[in-house]
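Worked example 2:
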Amino acid sequence: MVLVAAFIGQGVAADAWRAMSGQQILEELTDRELVYDGGAWQRFNASGRTLYNAGTDSWGYWSVRGDQYCSQWPPDAFWACYDMAMDGERFRFVDAFGNVSAGTRKPVKGE
């Protein structure tokens, strides 16, 4: 209930978020960048490599497993997986504990 109120309080209708399938996650993130709330950004390369920057570069790996986005950040071998939803160019990641992070997709040149 608090999460729904937070989204409504931000001017975003809670029902505008649509759950994403694995295929949609691949199509929407591959070779794209997201800018997260707070200013960090992440690039999702088709090779499965991902670059996250919150002031310094951090290289990891990403993949889609079932209908979840998953990432792994060396030297840790653990893969963390997230349910994803989208609302236009906005994306949110929800971890197994219900923690949410959200970002906006940067347009590709020519869009």
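The two ends are 36 Å apart (CA to CA). Helices lie at 2-9, 22-29.
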